[in-house]
Design goal:
Blueprint: H1 3-29, H2 41-52, H3 66-78, H4 89-94, H5 110-123, H6 128-143, H7 151-155, H8 162-166, H9 175-185, E1 196-198, H10 206-209, E2 213-217, E3 220-223
Antiparallel strand pairs: 1-3, 2-3
């Protein structure tokens, strides 16, 4: 076999190997895409969260059928996501579900994404310490028996956060909010254990004013 033919065969073999690697990586990228016909534990979790937030009224059976697809479309439309009826990484994150194989605390983790988004929406423009404090309040509620026991449940709880209902939640996430979310998840709590916060310049609820003040940071009063 001539050297030219040997080099050609080697080049073809390398090209084939590269193509196979690309195909493998592509399949891994889309491994967490759930759509009609899918089934399993993650589909059950998707249905459970959609049902608890009022987007889905079907059976929680772990089978991704037409009603689940319709509920996903509804959720995507209401939360500023691409409306395709399929649950990829972005929709998983918005639901507070980390893609398979990702560990907590990573930048793509569902809890980090949701916490950064609510911090950005609720406290964009506040001092950095105040942004961390807002994240800490959310996490304090997760641990408190009076609130839902998941971060997504706390954030999407009816009337819990104005930013979820007024469109601010759908705005781009500020870079500082990512850092504040990580700090809060790592245990920083400038709020002193607060469960509530409000802006005294805009608050209209007499009840929120009755909550014991812990600390004031920027425009927010953090309360027990």
């Amino acid at each position: 076999m001539s050297d030219k033919r040997r080099k050609l065969l080697l080049a073809l073999a390398v090209l084939f190997a590269v193509n196979m690697l690309i195909i493998t990586l592509a399949s891994q990228v889309h491994a967490d895409l759930y759509k009609r016909g899918a089934s399993g534990a993650t589909v059950t979790e998707i249905q459970t969260r959609l049902k608890s937030w009022g987007y889905y009224d079907g059976a929680v059976d772990g089978v991704y059928g037409s009603r689940t697809e319709a509920a996903v479309r509804y959720f995507q439309r209401k939360n500023g996501l691409t409306v395709d009826g399929q649950v990829g990484d972005a929709t998983l994150a918005a639901l507070g579900i980390a893609p398979t194989g990702q560990s907590g605390g990573g930048e793509d983790d569902g809890d980090l994404y949701l916490l950064a988004r609510i911090i950005s929406a609720e406290s964009r423009g506040e001092p950095y310490n105040g942004q961390v404090a807002v994240g800490a309040v959310v996490l304090n509620r997760v641990r408190h028996p009076s609130f839902p026991n998941t971060l997504s449940g706390v954030i999407y709880q009816t009337d819990a956060f104005t930013a979820v209902s007024d469109g601010q939640f759908d705005q781009p996430i500020a870079e500082s909010a990512w850092r504040a979310a990580r700090d809060a998840l790592n245990g920083s709590d400038p709020s002193g254990g607060a469960l509530y916060y409000f802006n005294p310049a805009t608050a209209t609820s007499a009840w929120i004013w009755s909550r014991p003040l812990i600390v004031t940071i920027g425009n927010h009063r953090f309360c027990a």
